[in-house]
Amino acid sequence: MVAVHKPFDQNLYDKFDNPAKTALINILENQGHRIMSVAENYYADVVSEYEGETYHSEAEVKRAWKEEWPTSWSEIRIPERKSRLLKKYNNKVNFYVFNNGVTACWYIQGKQMTNDTLRTAFGTRILKGERFFHIPYTEAKLITL
Is 21 in a helix, a strand, or coil? Predict the structure, then answer.
């Protein structure tokens, strides 16, 4: 089975990468993490250290999430293409899914993203056959900035 992935969009990357990464760094530093790397290397956005342990964190922006999380959205979707991070870090990677204004995010641990949560999704910005990890928002932690 050939995986269907949305093509990389440089304009969206340019618009959202820095604000989301900056917000993620602020969250981690406020929790006491020491930032070790933010190098652009196709892997985790931020590598940090806390109490002697290394953490890998990834920032995503869900553009359709504008203000309050709509309770009609029962789940948070993270693209299947992020499974490369799960493999690289043996599921020890944390995902922060930010709203469009980068004023709030959902925190999801990589270990929550299992094969049984992987399904196709439908939407105006989703390619036919594209798969996502579907995580119930009730199983994620909301962080407001």
Answer: helix
DSSP state of 145: -
The C-alpha atoms of residue 60 and residue 58 are separated, in whole angstroms, by: 7
CB 39 within 8 A of CB 58: no
Q: Please give the full DSSP string across 69-104, using - where no structure is assigned.
A: PPTT--EEEEEGGGHHHHHHTTT--EEEEE-TTSSE
The CATH number of domain 10-144, selected from 2.60.40.640, 3.10.580.10, 3.30.43.10, 3.40.1350.10: 3.40.1350.10
Greatest alpha-carbon span in the chain: 43
**CA pair distance 56, 115, nearest whole angstrom:** 20
Taking only the tens of pLDDT, the chain with its 145 residues reads: 567 767 777 888 888 999 999 999 999 999 999 999 999 898 999 999 999 999 999 999 999 999 899 989 999 999 999 999 999 999 999 999 999 999 999 999 999 999 999 998 877 777 688 899 999 999 999 999 9
